[in-house]
């Protein structure tokens, strides 16, 4: 899902096509002589369009494999948070307020990724609560989220935000403006059985309302429908078979995920990878989207169908990650984790060492593993601020302090 950084860069240049956030290339913008990469940040390329995203994925990946990220790396991430709780892609000057005509603009994807990382780290309840409040205030009436405040909902943003709430112990089904929640939107956009993209989801409907299946958006929808984070582990095989959209009954979240998984499995049944949708990139593999699809399939219990594309990634993706940076390494770590594999032995590449080398060295060893377990336990038993549901525009946001034990779903 490195696509978000490239999509933002293209959008800033005014050349982003309607579906580009779900199909843009996984290459970072080249380093800019006007931007200095801050200390504490992972990666060496210009962070303008992906700083918070890549940092969040790097920290989440480290925690997933039992490392304690360096304090300077965590401090950099928390220092990026805007006063209203959102996170922008990058704030070069954190003393300058977010928003307005000149301040950095917060977005849902950066914010949701930061929530997932901070939740995994533990000890950041205040930052998480503020971020979730901001995300709640950005929900659209159709139940979903767009990339930026006020923009139309898209599947990728809705999926990653739903995963952030679920990872923090909150049920996405209870998040709604009016009568719609994110699961309603995903079910509405699930394609019926009468086409090649049966079960897939679009990035967004086109201007005429037509839905066109998009692989990366579909992978995001699987995790969102399951209520799982970017670092989801393997799930149990679905108990029910394929249920077509348009059958007269609303699809359940599990059915949305299962239908989407069937589409992803079929899309990689021949060539064991997803192909890039960029103009001029015909038949070229998309490494990042393939890694996302592996995580989605495994999270939904389709591990057998994910083995072939995962094996392809092991053989081919290391060079891509080396060129692309920390978020790419993190995506491959997530894929290995979801498949129950050791990311230290990924087709001859130690993904963990390679990721760690892109920024401040984390703490390894048994102490880090113990702390990771403790943080996981805390996430299951800690005090959670629950965002009020049934929000009405202009009324404000309420909180319910809950001490109930809420086991995270991923």
Question: Care to describe what's here?
Answer:
The protein has 410 residues and is an all-alpha fold. It has a single domain (3-402), classed as Glycosyltransferase, CATH 1.50.10. 43% of the residues lie in helices and 3% in strands. It contains 15 helices and four strands. The strands form two sheets. It has a two-stranded antiparallel sheet with strand order 1-2. It has a two-stranded antiparallel ribbon with strand order 3-4. The two termini are 18 Å apart. 54% of the residues are buried. It comes from Streptomyces collinus (strain DSM 40733 / Tue 365). This is Squalene cyclase C-terminal domain-containing protein. GO terms for molecular function: metal ion binding. Keywords: Membrane, Metal-binding, Signal, Transmembrane, Transmembrane helix. The chain crosses the membrane at residues 382-401.
Give me some keywords for this one.
43% helix, transmembrane helix, SQ_cyclase_C, mainly alpha, Terpenoid_cyclase/PrenylTrfase, Glycosyltransferase, 15 helices, two-stranded antiparallel ribbon, single chain, globular, two-stranded antiparallel sheet, 410 residues, Squalene cyclase C-terminal domain-containing protein
Summed up, what is this model?
With 410 residues, the chain is mostly helical.
Number of helices: 15
Strand line-up of the largest beta sheet: 1-2
The number of distinct structural domains comes to: 1
Biggest sheet record = 2 strands, antiparallel
For this structure, what is the CATH class?
Mainly Alpha
CATH topology: Glycosyltransferase
Portion in strands: under 5%
Tally of strands? 4
**Class from helix and strand fractions:** mainly alpha
